[in-house]
Amino acid sequence: MSLDEKFTPFRTIIYNMVENFFQLVAGFFGYPENSGMSTVYDMPNELYTREQVQTSLPKHETFFPPLQEPQSWFELIFGPAPKIDTVIRYIYESKEEGFYNFYIENYNNIYFLPDWLSEFLQIRLNQCLDISLLETLREVLFVGILIYYQIVILRISLSWLIYINPYTVPWCYLAAAVDWTEEVLTGLLPSVVGVNITGTVFLGFLGSIGDSLNHLVFTMPFLPGEGESVKLLVDGQMKNVIVFHYLPTLWYRYPIPNEVREFWYNERPEIFNYMEKAYKDLDLQLLPNQIIEKLNQQVELLTQNSITNNYSSIEMIGNLVYSDELTNQFISILNLFHLSF
């Protein structure tokens, strides 16, 4: 008989004692008639449907650091430049919806700017249609995070090489750029088996921030809240997309940027004509500021000319009246002389 078989009766006794104890405690709460809490929370239908749709959406698959895919011999030798993998905006035009419509594929891990921040960028900083500056800033931030990510990896690697003193030139500059993170996180994160894991945690933090830039979507000239989640047939497949179409809300609340109106008036008159016909009831300012100023100047000139003409006509009438009075007086004097003779 093995040792396990000898302890089998004791194990059974202990299991039975624990089982009886739990049944005794559960009896005070109505066991076995009380079935307890439901395993699945009964959410409202709308919230439950929205949650199901959100979880069923695909993911925008990206990598940080980006995958190395050289396209030339130069990139094969020296390595390709890091590129950000953003969500593509598909721009389209139609007679019903206008000229500034676009849609993006709907993923469950994409991010948008808050409406108030998007409004500030468009109204205060004039980042409306041309968002090349925002795209450039995002790429610069992405590359900067990636470079610092590699610096942290190099600093961690140096800590494992005991024959290199990281506090001597030139390694001291590397230590100064990274060690501050260890000083901040040391009091928050404990060591695991005597190994400091602050560098690993900080790398994960940098990676999550850098990768989130791949999923950030700019919706100018629309606000993020104007997007409509629909299904479209794309490349022969039904896909969940977010559509931004018709008139942007900010172009109704605020004047349309003058650069956009000048572009319509001078280079794209078809857009100007469409906006004038489609939204004639909204009293939108569609003419550029220069054209409006010229029209105001012409109106002022016409007003001044009309006032001058009115003054001259009144003066002419007065002169005529004055000359008629002199004539009447002269005629009356002649009549007196005629009667006297």
3D architecture notes:
- The chain contains 11 helices and 6 strands.
- It is α+β, with helices and mostly antiparallel strands and 341 residues long.
- The strands form 2 sheets. Strands 1-2-6-5 form a 4-stranded antiparallel beta sheet. The chain has a two-stranded parallel sheet with strand order 3-4.
- Helix 5 runs antiparallel to helix 7 and helix 9 crosses helix 10 (269-278).
- The radius of gyration is 40 Å and the shape is extended.
- The chain starts with a helix and ends with a helix.
- The model is unreliable at 316-327 (pLDDT under 50).
Task: Compile the SSE list and pairings.
Elements: H1 3-27, H2 45-56, H3 73-78, E1 90-94, E2 98-105, E3 111-112, H4 115-123, H5 132-159, H6 171-185, H7 198-212, E4 216-217, E5 228-234, E6 237-244, H8 250-253, H9 258-266, H10 269-278, H11 289-340
Parallel strand pairs: 3-4
Antiparallel strand pairs: 1-2, 2-6, 5-6
Helix pairs in contact: 5-6, 5-7, 9-10
Biggest pleated sheet = 4 strands, antiparallel
Number of strands: 6
Strand order of the largest sheet: 1-2-6-5
Distance between the termini: 176 Å
Q: Nearest-angstrom radius of gyration?
A: 40 Å
What is the overall shape?
A: extended
Oligomerization state of this entry? single chain
Order of helices and strands: HHHEEEHHHHEEEHHHH
Average pLDDT metric: 81
Poorly predicted runs of 5 or more residues = 316-327
Keywords:
single chain, alpha+beta
Summary, kept brief:
By secondary structure, the chain is of the alpha+beta class.
